[in-house]
Every structure is written in C-alpha cells, then in structure tokens.
Amino acid sequence: MRVMTEKDAEDFLEKQGFSIVERMVVKTRQDIPKAARKIGFPVVLKLSSSSIIHKTELNAVAVDLKNTLGIANALRKMPKIKNAEFIVQKFVKGNELLIGLKKDAVFGHVLIFGSGGIYTEIFKDVSMRVLPANRKEIENMVRETRAFQLLIARGKKFNMQKLLDVLEKTAKLAAKHPEIKELDINPLIVNEKECLVVDARIVFN
Questions:
Q1: Class of domain 95-204
Q2: How confident is the model at residue 54 (pLDDT cuts 50, 70, 90)?
Q3: What DSSP letter does each residue of 81-128 carry, written as one string?
C-alpha cells in the first residue's frame, strides 16, 4: 500500500486534468512570507507530512491569513514536525464539498459525494454510486445530499456543470487507475466560476 501526501496527490490530479488551487511548497518557515506575497493574500497555510492525516485536529492548517502577522500567529500554533514541508495556497471563497473513491471488495470502485470541510464529520452527509455511472446518475447522486440543498438555498450560485465535470473525471480516474484504493478530495471548493481541489489524499494498492 502506498499513500500519497497532499502535494503528490494534487500533482497527480493536476496531470489528470483536475483544477488545483494556486499553491507553493516551501521547506522552511522563513520562506513562507515570500511565497504568500507571490501568490497574493489572503492565503491558506498548511503543514505537509506523511505523518499528518487530519490537519485541522493538529492545528496544522490556518485559513484566510491576510498578512505576514497572520502567518506568524498561525505558525506559533502549529506543531513542529521533523522533515515537514509547508504548503501556501491562495484562499478561495466558496462551498466546501467532498468527492472521493473507495474500492469495495465486492462492488469495485464506488464514487462518493457529500458535505466537505468541517461538515464531513458533523453531517455525515454522503451519497454513493457504484461505478461505472453516467452523468445523469452522478447528477442524481449530487441532488440526494444535504450539501446540494445548502448549495441551492437562499439563491446561492455555484457552477453545477463544473462540479459534474469533476465528478465525471473522478469516475473515469477509477477506470484509468484501478490500483487506486482510496481517493479523498476534501475540500473541493465550488463557487459561481470555479471548482477547485484544495486538499487531496490518495491511497494505492
């Protein structure tokens, strides 16, 4: 079994045609402000290490940092992990969703969609389809979730077609790379214009 860190997983997905949020990887704390200025504030700062699975629980991620003072404050709260790198990302506003693949021993690959970010564990709101699945089946899967109801509530706008495109790409990824055991894109940020991968993790057989 091989687990891809966030950086490698995002690089892999980018090569497969997924849109990834603008980001830079730096090795030292001193390099973070320069990377943030190059990307443009506000930014998201993350610790990247194979030993970190749940970043939020370890204070290994800080969002919407508007200046270098915000970066310094975030770094004081982050754990010091040997050989860890830092990922500096553009902060993008939008709705946080979960997209994933899971390889079932009986059914094969299953496509997963639901509420992302901190709401994944709170709502436990997911819908699944055994693959292969066509676009209509995938759209029905999306409409079954509470996440979709929140997206359409109060006149919120989001790019449904781009969201379905990402789900279709994920479904095709299972056929193209059957060695994928698990894939988690969480969160996927969707807004009126974009549908961007912000964090990802892949496990290969």
A1: alpha beta
A2: low
A3: -TT-EEEEEE---SEEEEEEEEEETTTEEEEEEEE-TTHHHHH--EEE
